[in-house]
Amino acid sequence: MEDMTQPQLAHQTNAGRMYSRSTTGLPEVPSITTVIGQQHMDLTGWASHMATSHLISDARLAEAVGSHAKLKTLARQSNDAADRFRDGAAARGDRVHNYAEQVALRALGMPHTMAETRDVLAQHNESGFADRFDEWWHNFEVKPLAAEITVWNSTVGYAGTLDLVAEIGGRVCLIDYKTRGTDRAGRVKSLSPNVVMQLAAGFKAEESLVDAQTGAWEPWAYGQDAMLLGVAIGETEVAAYQANPQTLPQHWQKFWALRQVWEYQQAVDAAPNPLQPIGPPVGVPQQS
User: Fold this and answer.
1) pLDDT of 99 above 80
2) What is the per-residue pLDDT for 276?
3) Region of 206 on the Ramachandran plot (φ > 0 left; ψ -120 to 50 alpha; else beta)
4) Which of 29, 189, 192, 280 could cysteine-pair with 180, CB 3.0–4.6 Å?
5) Distance between CA 14 and CA 6 in Å, rounded?
């Protein structure tokens, strides 16, 4: 759902990613991931680990010992390791998501570029992701109903794009793909619980996009009896997880609360400086 790719109606703004009602409209509501992003996540430990790992594995470290200038250069480059890793993972996620979308479009009988997107993965030595995805698609007998479908909720005020709506085992499923790495045991890494918030927000949509150019929408058809699935796509395997129905009310309430945080943050950012300097009361002698 709404990974790093850019849906037609999505816009990058100072308030985060936002959606408009048509290609000619102005941004109106935040995206699902922008809302969830209001929850602070402390990544300083991970960033420090990435920087340290990069530094100790740098072949130039030995010859840099004793040289302040060389060590400073290595340290600066190592500090960027987390950003480079994050950007690389995001680009890889885009490539894998693109391939998954094309697989669905082909199954729907729509124009697709499945062969081309698979070639792009091969050029980056990432064919394993496509191979495992194809196996999962076949084993789960996925019957797509809609791919990359943009949804809107006017009551709460948000929008997003679902990776896939499909029928699996006779059930309608709302599916969010996550490209994941491989752990030391060779298994695909698990998903963040935040995926449940994403899926719950998609489930609670009120409309889905029909035509981006004209801004035509229709009532959301899959918000009643759908199974919510997070699908972790890795090089060694694909693992599907169902969002526990018993926890959905709590995750939805958390999402609703984060939406309020986003709104009030915009009001705070637009307000005058909240702190104003003042001097001592009139008539009180000042210490020299």
Assistant:
1) yes
2) 86
3) alpha
4) 189
5) 16
